Nickel transport system permease protein NikB (Roseibium aggregatum), 320 residues
Amino acid sequence: MLRYALRRAAAAVAVLFGITLVVFLLLRFIPGDPATAVLLTMFDPGAGSAELTMADIEDLRTKLGLSDPLPVQYSNWLGQILQGNLGTSLRSRQPILGELALRIPGTLILAGASLVVMFAIAIPSGILGALYAGRPVDHVTRILSLTGESLPNFFLGVLLIYLFAIQLDWLPAIGRKGPESIILPAITLGTGIAAATSRLLRASLLDTLSQPYMLMAEAKGLPRGRLLMRHALRPALIPVLTSSSLVAGGLLGGAVVVETVFAWPGVGRYMIEAIGGRDYPVIQGFTLFMAGLFVMLNFSVDILYRFLDPRVRVEDQGHV
């Protein structure tokens, strides 16, 4: 286990290093000049590009280090990262790590509530679909799953706002004003991911139940429901766990659409503002932060595999 963990940790470091290089280069190939964008959006928002002089732009580029050769810019940024510093925003001139820390709690709350909604819908519907495969209950759960997966988040969000906030006046429409404010955004975000998770769980359960040892147990008279809950559910959760870890990372990355529809304060809106203002350090720092989060989640899932299914073994002799 220790050797396997060390291998995965080394691979994670290599992946993160590759991500830093790719993100850095891609941002430099985007058309437009960040110094001009900063001047237009910060110092004189009402000005046009014609009102800016080349001296102003070059002076700001020098101050921001954008005039340095790309290898120098990359090495400087990498040096900051190794010191635990994600950089400073071009627009606000504030440390990026501090700005992320202010917004992450809102996204964590939204992500956690959405995961609760997801599991509350996906697990019962997936189990029912597998237990009654080919029967009316299965058809109903599959239709509901396809419907939930097909509905765009922005459409479902607006629909919920109209129904529960405007027509019924039960819940707040936008903002973060109290515990009840999380209900509509969580339902909007959780419903879509629950649909895919439900279908994945149903397919995984059916595949597990079709294994010879499961068929033998059922032939000996073990009830299908008991067989499913006590013997099939645990190994069937492996692909669901993988999917859930990626979903959780994506949620923490900021459900941009949902946060925008409900004016929910989180990192998604922060990222949209950074992209609009060509704030390179924020985009780089945020992307690296999320990449690290995804790598950690995947690493945790790899370790948990051994405890979910005894058949999953990692051998030191060249097997991973």
Remarks:
- The chain has two domains: 1-91+277-320, 103-267.
